[in-house]
Design a protein that fits this description.
single chain; about 675 residues; alpha+beta; Jelly Rolls; Phosphorylase Kinase, domain 1; 3 domains; 9-stranded antiparallel beta sheet; 28 strands; elongated; glycoprotein; transferase; protein serine/threonine kinase activity
Length: about 675
């Protein structure tokens, strides 16, 4: 039977040639497959070449006078991060290839290779050795690289955080892998993972699949000839739209050192930008050259190589150690030895916060930045605050106070766990509060509105915490910055007073020595701005502003609004004077509150905001009022006692107290408390 009955012989030959080419290379604009590379459309540079039997050889062991770098990229770029046919941008791709790393000395290999997606196929400035021909010392880690690489690394490079000397890693713009795993594969037959040695010289099959819809990158490894395992080696959630550009090249990069050279081979390669990559025909893949057996290599050469490797590793390790030591270098002085348990290492805090990553940033302001972290040793969630400090100015006393406050134990205080000092930074470590700060709930539309029951419980909790600081601990602790943004909410939305960065301690029965004005405008007691001396009464004033803030859903000072509404205390007093104090309540509550409790909080907030320190209640009184164990006196009908007035007279206020409070002179916060407790 004639196959081509009507065609001339020349035409038949053309058809046969085209048919053969198609069998070796199936391609459209989105995919190709090479079962061997004799007819491959690749751009090669460096030491890369195609052998006579169709192997893609990226580096070799022939010329070892200098480190080798080899690249092989598909000749034309693919469209990645772009919109086609009116659809959403598609970044999905699928590829698989068979590779082999054959060291000159069996099982003694260096550097490695990587499948690479890059905006350019020109890597003129890239370095060999540990840089794999992708980066150099100046551009490694830059976001402008726009490079995705799957590295096959038989070398341990501490400077890049390698997990071992036989791993597969997912690299984005850097050789510090975003995810990595020791080389192994899942055996479908045995139902378990089995280790592989990358530098064994044996061919291995690697599958790489990215699903744009799921934003999931899967990497699967197996010995050549074994079907694709059911479980991948790595599954990484990653949004490649942040890294890949519209036009990208796909290919391979490999590098090797002088002392431990290796041949890096690719036997076959399939790629698809629009679906699942075709499976390679293992039977058609070219064969690797015969490997030399270990006994064929002289013992002297092995010894020389091993000594050379040891020297290089010692040098690299020493350099990496010094670099790492400087990176995590801290300030430590002899007097800190007694605070050992409270001193965190910078290295642990760095790891806990993922290198103080912006993704772990909880908040930032004039005080510094706060990061979320997880201590690797105990899997405990923490919050780390970084603040600037001058270690030459009273740091010993400051750290002593930090350690003292670390002993505070109360359910309504954020636990200060310890500290770390490094160069110009002081790092304070706290318990992590999952619901963040109270002000976000009061003023941000992103957070749900707190109901009155929750707000009232928060006020009572913070009041209890302040009472503990003022009277119930071994020393008196002045917080000096009570406000909504420093009240954090735990998982059950209980209020916990935090941020002790400005707090000061002094012994019971003594006068505080603080003379430096610190705090937040709107919460500062008027006498503090005149004398600079903080007391428990100045904390009470701040708590009064805080109470009104929570009840009214407004900051103590609002620059926008009517003149009588700029200062919250003035506005609440104005509403009280008109007999409509409830008008000051937060409109977001829509009247859903206990009237008696709302009136109590608003009036008590005014009492705490009295201009005369001695006329304010103590925190013990505040707790008693909130718990309903004491009756709140009538407010003095004198605006000069509150708000922005500068009057120093408190006689009207004192006369307004019940007879049980009648004393000859203005009582201090502590003396009023003693009268309440005596029941007179």
């Amino acid at each position: 039977m004639r196959l081509f009955p009507l065609l001339p012989m020349g035409t038949i030959l053309v058809i046969l040639c085209v048919s053969n080419i198609h069998m070796a290379f199936a391609q459209n604009e989105n995919q190709f497959i090479y079962n061997g590379f004799l007819q491959a459309r690749l751009h090669l540079d460096g030491s890369a070449k195609i052998t006579s039997n169709g192997l893609l050889l990226l580096t070799n062991t022939v010329n070892i006078s200098h480190p080798q770098v080899g690249h092989a990229f598909f000749q034309f770029p693919f469209k990645f991060n772009t919109t086609s046919s009116g659809l959403s941008p598609s970044l999905s791709f699928s590829t698989n290839f068979v590779f082999a790393i054959v060291p000159q000395v069996p099982n003694v290999g260096g550097s490695g290779m990587a499948f690479t997606i890059s905006p350019s196929s020109n890597f003129t400035n890239a370095e060999g050795n540990q840089y794999l021909g992708l980066f150099n010392s100046s551009n490694e880690g830059l976001t402008s690289n726009h490079i995705l690489a799957i590295e096959l690394d038989p070398t341990l490079n501490p400077e890049f955080g390698d997990i071992d000397q036989n791993h597969v890693g997912i690299d984005v713009n850097s050789l510090n892998s975003t995810d990595s795993a020791s080389a192994m594969y899942f055996s479908n037959k045995e139902g378990k993972n089995i280790s592989l040695e990358l530098k064994s010289g044996n061919p291995m099959h690697l599958w790489i699949d990215y699903d744009e819809a799921e934003k999931l990158l899967c990497v699967t490894l197996a010995p050549n000839g074994i079907p694709k395992p059911n479980q991948p080696l790595m599954s990484k959630s990653i949004d490649l739209s942040q890294y890949l550009l519209e036009s990208m090249y796909v290919g391979f990069s490999a590098a090797t050192g002088i002392l431990v050279p290796s041949n890096h081979y690719v036997l076959g390669w399939s790629f698809n930008k629009s679906g699942q990559a075709q499976s390679l025909d293992v039977s058609k893949l070219p064969s690797l050259p015969r490997q030399r057996k270990a006994k064929e290599i002289s013992g002297l050469m092995i010894m020389v190589l091993l000594i050379a490797v040891a020297l290089v590793l010692i040098t690299i390790t020493g350099t990496a150690y010094n670099s790492r030591r400087k990176k995590f270098e801290e300030i430590r002085e002899d007097w800190e030895k007694e605070y050992g348990p409270h001193r965190f290492t910078y290295k642990n805090l760095y790891k806990a916060t993922k290198g103080f990553s912006d993704k772990e940033l909880l908040g930032a302001g004039g005080f510094g930045k706060v990061y979320r972290g997880i201590l690797p040793s105990s899997n405990t969630q923490i919050a780390v605050k970084k603040v600037s400090h001058d270690s030459k100015q009273g740091m010993k006393e400051f750290v002593a106070e930090i350690i003292s406050m670390g002993r505070l134990r109360h359910r309504n205080l954020v636990q200060l766990l310890g500290y770390c000092r490094r160069r110009g930074e002081l790092l304070l470590v706290y318990d992590y509060m999952p619901n963040g700060s109270l002000d976000k709930f009061l003023y941000s539309n992103e957070k749900p509105n707190l109901n009155w029951i929750q707000r009232f419980r928060i006020l009572k909790g913070v009041a209890s915490g302040l009472l503990y600081l003022h009277e119930e601990w071994e020393q008196i602790v002045l917080h000096r910055d009570v406000k909504a943004s420093n009240v954090l909410l735990d998982a059950e939305l209980n209020g916990r007073l935090g941020d002790f960065g400005l707090a000061r301690l002094y012994d019971h029965g003594t006068n505080p020595q603080t003379t430096h004005v610190v705090g937040t405008v709107g919460y500062l007691a008027p006498e503090l701005t005149r004398t600079g001396r903080a007391t428990t009464c100045t904390d009470v004033f701040s708590f009064g502003a805080f109470m009104l803030e929570v009840a009214c859903g407004r900051r103590p000072i609002e620059l926008q609004g009517l003149p009588e509404e700029v200062v919250l205390v003035d506005y609440v007093f104005l509403c009280w004077g008109k007999g409509a104090i409830l008008d000051a309540s937060d409109p977001r509550l829509e009247g859903n509150y206990v009237v008696e409790e709302m009136e109590l909080v608003l009036k008590l907030g005014l009492f705490c905001s009295h201009l005369v320190p001695e006329a304010r209640p103590s925190m013990r009184q505040v707790v008693q009022f909130l718990d309903g164990n004491a009756k709140l006196p009538e407010l003095p009908n004198d605006k000069a006692c509150f708000g922005t007035s500068t009057s120093n007279e408190a006689s009207d206020f004192l006369l307004s107290f019940p007879s049980s409070f009648s004393i000859a002179s203005a009582p201090s916060c502590s003396s009023i408390d003693s009268i309440l407790r005596s029941g007179r």
